[in-house]
Amino acid sequence: MFETHHQGVIRRQQAAPAPQYSIRMECRKRQDYGVHLTAEILSPEHSILPALLAGRKALAVTTSTVYKLYGRQLEQLIRHCGLDMRVHVLEGGEINKTLASVERVCREALDAKMDRKSVLVGIGGGVCTDVVAMAASAIRRGIEHMRIPTTLIGLVDAGIGLKGGVNLGSKKNYFGCFNPPSQALLDPLFLSTLPESCIRFGMAEILKMALVTDHELFRLCEGHQQALIESRFSDPWEIGREIIWRSTRSMLEELQKNPYEDQTYQRLVDMGHCFSPALEAATGYRMHHGEAVAIDMALTVTLAESLGMMEPQERDRFVAVLRQAGLPIHAPELTPALCQAALDEAEQHRGGAVHFPIPVEIGRCLFIEDRAKLPNRLIESALRRLAGEAREMHLNLNTH
Ligand SMILES: NC(=O)c1ccc[n+]([C@@H]2O[C@H](COP(=O)([O-])OP(=O)(O)OC[C@H]3O[C@@H](n4cnc5c(N)ncnc54)[C@H](O)[C@@H]3O)[C@@H](O)[C@H]2O)c1
Ligand SMILES: [Zn+2]
Q1: Of 71, 132, 140, 365, which has the fewest Cβ atoms less than 10 A away?
Q2: CA-CA distance, 355 to 229, in Å (whole number)?
Q3: Is residue 187 within 6 Å of ligand 1 at its C-beta?
Q4: What are residue 281's phi and psi, to 5 degrees?
Q5: For each successive 10 residues of the chain (400 residues), what is the average pLDDT?
Q6: Atom of ligand 1 nearest to the CA of 160
Q7: How far is the centre of ligand 2, averaged over its atoms, from the C-alpha of 302 (Å)?
Q8: Are 214 and 139 found together in one domain?
């Protein structure tokens, strides 16, 4: 017992007893997983899925649009290969990325009497694989899951990483987990039925990887993206696969350095993701994530040029490729005040510095740490310039 004096008041405090026995527990889990670019994942003759499931009980989870398009093939695969697999169809869409969907999957797993060796298989876009990753982390404190992405964003981003998440009201991914899949199986054939807009949104994420690490990937997109968008990545087929695989590999190399996001705040994959969350929210989520990422990147390369970090021709070349992909470079909702608020938030959440990825050329990036290097007047003039370029583009389109 000892006494402390505080403004004349004497407080008696109990000294915390020193622990008599202590043990330090090591509880890091070593995990790795395979990401495979494959083909005909639903074909009974060629699919690698039956071998990977190896006779275990499985629950395939998909969404209604994907089931309408691919349900018959999936059921045929199950029958033909004698898989012990039920199929559960969720309602898709961001609005259904909720705990209620996670619960539905868990109930179905319970009904199917799945045990700790059983596997969930998410077949769908990022919404589906995010829900499945969450459910897999919860069922019996964690069962295996596989991801079979069916959108371009899924193939190069949501389907290959470690994260899962669902929304709490308008707070995106408020519930989330780091839960790597046991396998990610990528089959670009799914893209044949995807709406063109979804291909363009995926291109924004691919161009992000090109901008931060891979000039050759950028060159391939510049040369072939128009044909690939029109043909849903079927023509030229080999180039389409190469673009997907290069982008996937670059993404995984970046994730590998910091898989649980606890090693560093300097993340190249944050390119295009500094201003875009605020922009998406400001449009009431009417603007798609891919479009917001494109606008964010257009602003970032313009800032890089103004700061003398990137050559003007290099900046123009990148903006031209965004436009060629049919992606926007400006939106009136992205005001200087919104940008400042986004930088405030980045500073708050990233240990007091902004860690803003900034390109010096296409394929190479540095980081700006000090917020003062991005003053308001710089952001204002960059936004004005992009608004002018977007207007010009609109006029040109209307007069031709
Ligand atoms: N976990 C991660 O690391 C990560 C990374 C990026 C994005 N995400 C999440 O992914 C989601 C966005 O993913 P998305 O763009 O794939 O959206 P999505 O899952 O909503 O799919 C887009 C639309 O395409 C339909 N669809 C899916 N595959 C199809 C196909 N082959 N043919 C025709 N239609 C098809 C879907 O039904 C849906 O209507 C967001 O919720 C985002 O937060 C997660
Ligand atoms: Zn993104």
Answers
A1: 140
A2: 33
A3: no
A4: -65, -40
A5: 49 72 86 95 96 96 98 98 98 95 98 97 98 97 97 98 94 94 98 98 98 98 98 97 98 95 92 96 92 98 98 98 98 97 91 94 97 95 97 74
A6: 3
A7: 20
A8: no
